[in-house]
Amino acid sequence: MTAFICTTCGTQYAPAATPPENCPICLDERQYVGAGGQAWTTMDALRRTHANTWRLREPDLFELQTTPRFAIGQRAHLVRTPSGNILWDCITLLDDATVELVRGLGGLRAIAISHPHFYSGMVEWAHAFDVPVWLHEADRAHVMRRDPALRFWSGATHALGDGLTLVNAPGHFDGGAMLHWPAGAGGQGVLLAGDIIQLVPDSRWVSFMRSYPNLIPLPARTIGAIEAAVAPFAFTCIYNAFSPEGMLADAKPNIARSAARYRRWIAP
């Protein structure tokens, strides 16, 4: 039995004798099936052609990414806290080098993921480090590999300890979540946003979409709800799944003015 992996989105499926007929994650309007059609790989095959790279973004915050780019190409982050490390978001590839590096940093105490596009190899990671994976209940239907390691939270927020808080911000997905890390940025606060809030090339702005590859916008009421979701939290910096630099200053006011600009352009 093999846990097949979709090459377009990187989602790993439950072990089976043959690959699934299709990938429901990619058939959803927020994703896509590649021009060459549905294709599958395995963890063993991926380990032969790819590796994970690491970068220290700031004290106690590491970024990891698979190279060459695989599937969506997102970054994950490892946050060090006094009670143990949290892996924020997930990438598909888990190889021996990554396991040794994570263990050298103290292992993990939990994994938390922003939305289904980054569920990727989450069960493989959970088994390797014997930790739970926190997902929002609203996205349960998008889980393609069920496992006892998965834990579902509900509501607007969920505390992970050491001040870390998962913040639900529906839009890209109903269970879309971000991670607030108050100790980040020298105590000024960091928002780990996945791509629920998307950084853009102009570092003064952010944006928001239902689908990034298919360019489906969100309605004005949803943008207001995302603003309201992060309003109670103090932060000056945003890191997300795709920006190589992050937004290192004025993140909270930049969200507010970006939301106002967005609403102006979608208004009738």
Give a quick set of tags describing it.
268 residues, alpha/beta, Metallo-beta-lactamase, Chain A, seven-stranded mixed β-sheet, globular
Question: Can you put this structure into words, describing what you see?
Answer:
With 268 residues, the protein is of the alpha/beta class. The chain has a single domain, classed as 4-Layer Sandwich (Metallo-beta-lactamase, Chain A), CATH 3.60.15.10. α6 packs antiparallel against α7. The termini are far apart.
Named CATH architecture: 4-Layer Sandwich
How do the SSEs run, as a string of H and E? EHEHEEEEHEHEEEEEHEEEHEH
Question: What do we call the CATH topology?
Answer: Metallo-beta-lactamase, Chain A
Oligomer: single chain
Distance separating the two termini: 53 Å
Largest sheet, in brief, is: 7 strands, mixed
CATH superfamily membership, which one?
Answer: Ribonuclease Z/Hydroxyacylglutathione hydrolase-like
Shape: globular
